[in-house]
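Dear U.,

For the methods section draft, I wanted the exact inputs and outputs in one place so we can describe them consistently. I've listed the two proteins in the order they'll appear in the manuscript figures. Please don't edit the token lines directly; just add comments below if something needs changing.

First protein:
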Amino acid sequence: MSQTIGRTRLAYSRAWHHVSLASPTTPSLGRLASRIAILLMGKHKPIWDPSTDCGDYVVATGCNDVLVTGKKKEQKMYYKRTTRPGVMKSLSMESMIRKWGGGEVLKRAVRGMLPKNRLRDKRLERLKVFEGEAHPYRTNLMRFEGRIRQVEPEVKTELLKQTSV
């Protein structure tokens, strides 16, 4: 029996998921980051394999309303090492949101949830974050019965037109 059953081009196609942080039912930062990491890795697909990149795109909007519990906005620190020995810069979450926006906080949280291998940067590139609700990827997202789905390309109909002529 062939081992390539189910590993077709359609199985590896990438869907576009939309996450709105402005909705009242949005979970806290860590829970949301772990769900986004699962979508970026492709663990929700039956063809998931740790060595292949079969994840989907995720568009996160409303990142200025990122939800954190407790006093994390004031107490959580992000550290950055410089090339000089003994020099380390620190930045609180509150100042990071003011300086770079909530999207950077979400990206760093998702980056920590992804496996530390050579696929991490490629997977993180598929996470698109926006401070407001407007984003340029609306053509990739489509609604059917209240759910967002991917727009399928019109490749098959073009091939049928060429063969019938």
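Second protein (the one for the lower panel):
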Amino acid sequence: MSGFQNQSFGSAQSAPPLPPIPQQHQAAAPLIAQKTGPAPPVSFGAPPAANALKPQPTGKRANLSQATPQNPFGF
């Protein structure tokens, strides 16, 4: 014996009855295939206009030895 059969947990009330399971009266309609149009053109990567971007000098350089929480790059 494991000892669980003799233990009582609070009052001796039984669990409430389970609610009835609803019955399905209609069968689900089968899936019907639909026509689709042609796939849209797909391209990956940056657009061609992205090649025109050039770095812009700001005149400032980061000085990490002077960095603070308010100025994390030390400008």
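Candidate sentences for the figure legend, describing the second protein: The chain has a mean pLDDT of 78. The chain is about 0% helix and 0% strand.

Thanks,
Y.
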